Amino acid sequence: MGISMTQEVLFRGALLPLFGINWQSVVATASIFGILHLGSGRKYSFAVWATFVGIMYGYATILSSTVVVPMAAHAVNNLVGGIIWRYTSNSSK
């Protein structure tokens, strides 16, 4: 299981139902998700972005009633981000 899938199982599959399926819980789990993305020398703007995306993943979980939708969205987000990073970092050399 990839890291994005593991994160979704934890945040949207376990924490969101534990906190309650409502907007307050979506914001709470997304905030934790964002804060935990601060490691590895990342900037605060990345944590804000991760929090925003976490809200979208939480919303997708509530609308779809499954963690599969945010898992797929997270995987696609990471894939696109990785592709963009690869080609922009190679072009600057």
From TrEMBL:
Which biological process annotations from GO are given for this protein?
CAAX-box protein maturation
What InterPro entries does the database record attribute to this sequence? Rce1/LyrA-like_dom
Transmembrane annotation, as ranges:
20-39, 46-69
Name all CAAX prenyl protease 2/Lysostaphin resistance protein A-like domain ranges.
Answer: 4-80
Q: Keywords assigned by UniProt?
A: Membrane, Transmembrane, Transmembrane helix
Q: Which GO terms describe its molecular function?
A: endopeptidase activity
UniProt KW Transmembrane keyword: yes
Q: What is this protein called?
A: CAAX prenyl protease 2/Lysostaphin resistance protein A-like domain-containing protein
Tell me the organism.
Answer: Solanum verrucosum
